[in-house]
Amino acid sequence: MDPMNYILLASVLFTIGAAGVLVRRNAIIVFMCVELMLNACNLVFVAFARMHGDIEGQVIAFFVMIVAAAEVVVGLAIIMQIFRTRRSRRWMMPICSSTRRRRDSVCDCD
Amino acid sequence: MTVSATATDVYLAAAPPAAAEAGGAILSNAWLLIALPLLGAAVLLLGGRRTDGWGHWLAVLLPLASFGWAVLALIELLGMDPADRSQTVPVYEWFSVGDFSAEVSLLLDPLSISFALLITGVGSLIHIYSIGYMAHDPGRRRFFGYLNLFLAAMLVLVLADNFVLLFLGWEGVGLASYLLIGFWQYKPAAAVAAKKAFLINRVGDLGLLIAIMIVFTTVGTVAFSGVFGAADEIGQGVLTAIGLLLLLGACGKSAQLPLQAWLLDAMEGPTPVSALIHAATMVTAGVYLIVRAGPIFEAAPAAQLTVAIVGAATLLAGAIIGCAKDDIKKALAGSTMSQIGYMVLAAGLGPIGYAAAIAHLITHGFFKAGLFLGAGSVMHGMNDEVDMRRYGGLRTAMPVTFATFGLCYLSIIGIPFFSGWWTKESIISATFAYGGVTGQILGGATLLGAGLTAFYMSRIMFLTFFGGKRWAEDAHPHESPASMTVPMVILAAGAVVLGAVLVYGYRFAEFLSPAVHHHAHEFDLAHMLTAPYSLAAIAVLVVGVAVAWLRYIRAEVPETAPKGNAITEAARNELYGNTINEELFMRPGQALTRAMVTIDDKVVDGLVNGVGTGTRDGSLSLRRLQTGFARTYALTMLFGAAIVVAILVVRF
Amino acid sequence: MIPLTDSAPAVLASPVITEQPPAIDYGLLSPMLVVFAAGVIAVLIEAFAPKAQRRSLQLGLALASVLGAFVLTVLQVGALPADEAGVTTALGSVAIDRPTLFLQGTILVLAFISLLLIAEQRSGESAFAAQAATVPGSEEERSHVLAGSQHTEVYPLVLFAVLGMQLFPASNDFLTMFIALEVMSLPLYLLCGLARRRRLFSQEAAVKYFLLGAFSSAFFLFGIALVYGYAGSVNFADINEAIGEGGSPLFAGTAEPLLLVGIAMIGVGLLFKIGAVPFHNWKPDVYQGAPTPITALMASAVLVAAFGALLRVFLMAFGASVEQWRPMLWVVAILTMVLAAVIAVTQRDIKRLLAYSSVVHAGFVLTAVIAASPEGLAGAMFYLAAYGFTTIGAFAVITLVRTHENGPEAADLAQWAGLGRTSPLLAGSLALFLLAFAGIPLTSGFIGKFAVFQAAVAAGATPLVVVGVLSSAVTAFFYVRIIVLMFFSEPEGSGPAVIRAGALTGSVIGIGVAATLLLGVYPTPVLDTMLPQPVGEEAEPTAADDGFTR
Predict the structure, then answer these.
(1) CA distance linking residue B272 with residue C72, whole number of Å
(2) Distance in angstroms (rounded) separating the CA atoms of residues B332 and B375
(3) CA angle B297-B301-B307, nearest 5°?
(4) Which residue among B616, B620, B645 sits closest to C264, beta carbon to beta carbon?
(5) What spatial distance separates the first Cα and last Cα of chain A, rounded to whole Å?
(6) ipTM of this complex > 0.85?
(7) Full-prediction pTM beyond 0.80?
(8) Chains with 3 or more CB pairs closer than 8 angstroms to C?
(9) Fewer Cβ neighbours under 10 Å: the N or C end of chain C?
């Protein structure tokens, strides 16, 4: 099988991930879509490593996984924080100022 | 003065000052001249109350050090070959980007060093005087800070080697002048006067700025050497425009017609300020500009003649105003206008007048500063009374002030062998030597001015120091402290001998020749004394003094000004300068503004506002894109990515 | 230290079994190692030090390490070989050359100043939330506020972010660059969400910044993957070489689309970080929501780091295909300069206004990137340094102006009216900063604009410069409007309340004013250090004609 097929598959996964970021409302799902995009990248790296016959691409894939894990830690912390504040799963709330006048201390747009 | 057949035009080094690199350590560190007073200003103005105790001593010391440096620089300059005396001293490279480089350089040549000596020398004396004069003022530290700032800016102005740096100094002195006129800002008159000076100076500054812009666009440089070297290649029309705009700038700063109205009001500032800024130094900046830009004016005769005419008109107008004012400082201010008129007239004569103009400028710096300081001393002793009709008979109460004021008085009216005589005589003879009907008319004006000078100065002298006492009840005139009298004595000494030092043998003209075009001729003292116009000058002098004697010594002086005839009234009202300004500029200006507003509402709004609201509407609709929804942002990014990929991949 | 002749082997390109340890020049890496070590120690302090001492310990450690790293960075300048642009180390993954050192030095100085601002406290109240985990407005939050809780975790987070910033412009292959990008960004995402006031804004800013940042990272990574496929390596020098040879032999010269799409996607990732239109949307919201000291850090040091990376990628890795990417950056630069300037005109919130202004300035610097010349590089670096100082100063002023005593920062521009009367010194400083943004002569902004525009004109991008000048005229309009507002408008009611500047904030503003003036009046020493030293005319072309080492 032509290794280029892996690249095509990865591109499809990447596009699915990007589309998910655009259409999904739940921040967790959006974040998972980003992870999908990163993993599509990993697939490309591994496929090209195979084609070039060196292990550089494979090593990069490991690094990306580690970075993705770190991102999950930070991302979940931030998302959890705002979830607790909002008690809502919509992450696409407009920042208040751009649609209406803010109040002084704590803004409660909800 | 002989303008004999042997007279030769000495045009040294084909116009531009040869930009030799500086030699000695003194000259190459000329930036210190500016840095020292600037440091003083910074310390005093930023240091706050901590410097209240010793700040004024620092402020005196630094200009003195600067003066010392200038003297050393002069010595070093004199040690050089006359042809090498134009030194360009690079201070630092402002920035250089690619092949473009902007440098800040100073030009040290006989002309600029003369000014530097005058500014730092007279400036230091006036600083010393101010210690006594401002001793009880709560804002003394601020005052000294401003004075130092002024000195630094003035030195930038005269030491600059290009028009932009000169303009920087020009604005700097304008700022310092504004701050100092309005120093007693709690007096409404002072605040108004400061604003007036600021506004009128803006007109002149705008002229100078436009001139610099035209110069830059036509020649491609603003450095003096480059501009003057290329003066011959610029078209006549453009040159005339540049010359007239430079003249406009000079008129604003030097209080020449038609921008003279601010100077008399500027006397609201403390007297040392009037002496330093509005008599000895800043107001002569216009003369400096005209002489410095000599090559431009020589190539544009129409502009040059305008300069001479403006000078002649102002010298008469100033003298007439000086004759009628009862406020001693305003009378002296009128005299300043008039004397600067002499200088501008001489500068407008071209090479035969430059040296005379600068020489008179320097001696005037001394005797006029001496007169102002004397006036300040009188006011100091008379509870800040300025009306001369309330003075009288002060010569016994203030002997030192009387003596120094008297020597300066003899100098300004042109008693032979006093400083003023030498330099004014040079101007009168240069005017007659200009030739033609123009020369005769201008010469007539200088003679008439000499007579008026003798009259108004004698009037001041007699009203103040002679006659009966017309003092206010509570006046106890007393001599001023030594810190005030010593500077006056030094200035008076200069007013006596400096003229001879400069003019005898045309030494000063020779010295200046590397910097300015100079018309050399034989020096002949006998001719100076016996030429017809010299005798005429002495005659009008005698007449002027005699008339003043008849009116103010022989006759009783009323304590309030009597109703005068039409001419006196006109002179008292400053020849209706303010009224003219109001009628000619303010009213039509207001009408124009109203008309513009109407037109703006009706016509321009449709056009410009179309564009304006277009931008705003565009901005608002673009702002609407900023919805705050992260999803929309992601979508924008994706579109952006698509665009970026498309530009790269799609080939046309 | 690997000499340049070693031609920097691709990371692990040839898996030869060897007992030789890799040659790593720890001296050259020492500035980064110091900051990294300090970050690790700071985490330990957080775990073990008693609560009362944490803040002073953390602050001292952070300031000392950043300062020490700066000193070490300066020392490295002398360590570079005189006739080379620089050297690569750690198996060719990090390039230490003069641009790197200049950018790292700038980042460290700016980070130091930002740390001063971050550390400022007024009666125990800092710019950061007492306890970020609590729900805003809850009883729990109130108890933490009353107990005087503090997030001293801010300091290690900043240190790690600074480490990422140092590595970002120094990385010499895409893997290192990606890691650096994430090390820089992840702490910033968290820091954005820690504001004490208006916490909902802050949390929203954090979540937006995080999601969009991760989104852009994915693009960046996909681009890297494609370029890796094209060139068979992620090392910049190798990629440049591969472009010259038409790509890896594997594809027999048919793989150019891989490269072009790769360049575009890497471009998206980097342009997002600098905030160029149309990847700028996050900036206003994040700048507005984040605690102002963090905004200052992002607007200065992060921008420098991101541009450093952008310059290295486009001038070095893709230096051979400059004709391909130039039109793309043209479009982005024009969009950035025009759209951001137009939108900024109607902004009413001062932090949003400065955010848009930051976008416009990114557009100006992009013109220097497009020039792709040593002058362009020098101009861009000068611009970034000058802008960094000025913008930190401006944000420092913002922290002091409040709606009322003990109130939040006065965000609405209308509340700034009359500031010039109540506190002339503060308003004067801000006026100076705004004039520098507008590029008035004798301020650093003028020299910076002159440098970048001059480089662009020299490279034949005159139309771009015309757009830039028009755009800066528009920006000057709204900067001057603020000055007019401060000095000549009647205040609403009693006008804004200005709290006394503490020693830290005061020195930040002072440094900002001094740097803005100094770089405007006497920029020559700084400009000189940046241009590649002309040592021996013939040595020039080989020793990297763009000033980067290879």
Answers:
(1) 55
(2) 9
(3) 65
(4) B645
(5) 54
(6) yes
(7) no
(8) A, B
(9) N
